[in-house]
Design a protein that fits this description.
The protein is α+β, with helices and mostly antiparallel strands and 292 residues long. It is built from 6 helices and 19 strands. The chain is globular, with a radius of gyration of 18 Å.
């Protein structure tokens, strides 16, 4: 890859949204659209273009000529307006143990909406409809090509890369007393999926199923585990979902959350306005969400 690290971002500068690469340990952003105006200005369209676009980036020389100080731009969610945002629940063994729950034999799938996605530095507005706002740090998969009836041993070929997500939940709307016991409203309110700061391509991660994953609230560690605790790994998730739903380039799949969420604590803890939630996965990055 000619030494180019494939850590894609979307950013805005002077009112323009652009596609970039994170370099220098996050201290700089390469403006890919300045380096090659033929490239799409958003990652979803870039992914749709397949290997052709990747090869254009890989062939780039003198990328430092197009580098911007990260502090001079605003990082946006690396994927905006995907066709689908899907999630897997109860997918960490230690999280199941925490709740005294049986480990699911098949992935438990539910959905969010594209309107849930906000950026890695964006504030989350506390909805008036809930009093029990909860945190869940998650590994997010970004789909690289159309996937339908994919076999498990081929499923990783359909993943473009990985990101960090905060699966925000309104626990009072997840219980059986509201919305007929369905979880949708408790999971899919506006802004309930902070995402970013990057999408890291598969080849940049040695083993995505052996990464530290943690969440802090106001600087205090609430969740700390490892992706080796996943019940259903990435390839199993893609194979299972694609039996029922056609996955498209740029779709986002959240893979579940480790123990330490608010509603399982004794006594239960929930977010309030002014809280700061930091969601982090080793070798991928960190997002910081302020509740306002």
């Amino acid at each position: 890859m000619y030494g180019i690290t494939m850590r894609f971002v979307q950013f805005t500068k002077d009112g323009d949204r652009k596609l970039g690469l994170e370099i220098k340990d996050g201290k700089a952003i390469v403006d890919l659209n300045a380096a090659n105006p033929e490239l799409p200005s958003n990652l979803r369209d870039f992914i749709k273009g397949g290997d052709v676009n990747l090869k254009k980036v890989q062939r780039m020389l003198d990328i430092d000529d197009y580098a911007l100080n990260t502090d001079s731009v605003r990082l946006e969610a690396p994927i905006l307006r995907p066709e689908k945002v899907l999630c897997v629940g109860m997918n960490y063994r230690d999280h199941c143990r925490e709740q005294g729950a049986t480990v699911p034999e098949e992935p438990v799938v539910f959905g969010k909406f594209p309107s849930c996605i906000i950026g890695p530095q964006d504030d989350l507005h506390y909805p008036a409809e809930t009093q029990k706002l909860d945190w869940e740090v998650e590994l997010a998969l970004v789909i690289g090509k159309e996937a339908k009836h994919v076999q498990k041993d081929q499923a990783m070929d359909y993943i473009f890369g990985f990101s960090v997500a905060l699966d925000v939940s309104a626990r009072d709307w997840q219980n059986k007393l509201k919305n007929g016991g369905q979880v949708l409203l408790g999971k899919a309110m506006d802004e309930f999926c902070p995402l970013g700061p990057v999408v890291v391509t598969k080849d940049e991660v040695n083993d995505v199923h052996n990464l530290g994953i943690r969440c802090r609230v106001n600087g205090i560690i609430k969740q700390s585990s490892n992706t080796n605790q996943l019940v259903h790994r990435s390839e199993a998730i893609i194979a299972h979902i694609s039996r029922f739903i056609t996955l498209k380039p740029g779709d986002v799949v959240l893979t579940g959350s480790p123990p330490g969420v608010g509603f399982t604590r004794n006594p239960p803890e929930f977010l309030k306005r002014g809280d700061v939630v930091e969601s982090e996965i080793e070798n991928i990055g960190q997002i910081c969400t302020r509740i306002v």
